[in-house]
Specification:
It is a single chain. With about 230 residues, the protein is an alpha+beta fold. The chain is about 60% helix and about 10% strand. The chain has helices spanning about 1-20, 25-40, 65-75, 95-105, 105-115, 125-140, 160-165, 175-180, 185-190, 200-225; strands spanning about 45-50, 80, 85, 145-150, 155, 195. The strands form two sheets. The protein has a four-stranded mixed sheet, sandwiched between helices. Strands 3-4 form a two-stranded antiparallel sheet. The longest helix has 25 residues, at about 200-225.
Length: about 230
């Protein structure tokens, strides 16, 4: 197990060093690719805070031997748009216990199970999105004061011997061998990689915080102005 961890870290370092050579020209793509490599090497799904790469914008920026496999990789992702849980208010020390109760509820357990269906290649992605929609609706009905449904773009990457050979096998030199090894675990588990597209979330969280701060200031000002002292 220890040697496997060393291999994965070495692979990531090599890939990051290679990608760093292209960083100044298209850093958003670099960030996505590094995150994707990390997810592949650790066997985890991915939360993408940036935009999903557009292969058409990379055609003049990548060498052909790299562009073609990357284009094939990006075109293999299947995209769905399920409704997911989103808090109506910021989670702070006053309501953290309430949200903890929600996370421990039976409805939330079903909600997590619905998301797990996205990883199962035997379940069509659109059917998995339907499971999530229903679980979201059920959970929001239970805690409608605190939660709401919000559409999210989710991309899933299936793994098969043909896809791995067609995409990663087309990479130049040793990279093809390295990716063949790193993707073997995904083939063995027969699992899809799930990418949650969360671009714009940082801005939304920031604006929510600003709005809550302003409302609090207004409330405190009104209370102080009504104080007879």
């Amino acid at each position: 197990m220890f040697s496997n961890i060393i291999f994965r870290r070495t692979l990531l370092i090599l890939m990051i060093l290679m990608i760093m050579r292209m960083k100044t020209r298209y850093s958003p793509f670099t960030a996505f690719l590094v995150s994707l490599l990390s997810a592949l090497s650790t066997g985890r799904n991915l939360i993408n805070m940036g935009s999903f790469p557009d292969a058409n914008k990379l055609i003049k920026k990548l060498p052909p031997e790299v562009f073609m496999p990357v284009k094939g990789l990006l075109s293999t992702f299947e995209t769905v748009n399920p409704s997911t849980i989103c808090p109506r208010v910021a989670v702070d020390r006053d309501n953290v216990t309430l949200f903890q109760d929600i996370l421990e509820s039976q409805q939330y357990t079903k909600y997590k199970s619905a998301h797990s269906a996205l990883e199962d290649p035997s379940i069509p992605a659109h059917a998995s999105a339907g499971y999530i929609n229903r679980a979201t609706k059920s959970l929001c009905a239970q805690a409608k004061k605190w939660t709401k449904g919000k559409k999210m773009i989710v991309s899933v990457l299936p793994f098969s011997a043909r896809i791995v050979d067609m995409i990663f096998g087309a990479l130049p030199g040793k990279l093809a061998e390295l990716f063949a090894r790193i993707t073997q675990d995904w083939l063995t588990r027969n699992q899809r990689l799930v990418v949650y597209q969360m671009s714009g979330v940082k801005e939304q969280v920031f604006m929510t915080r600003i709005d809550a701060y302003c409302r609090n200031k207004v409330t405190n000002h009104d209370k102080s102005s009504q104080d007879p002292r």
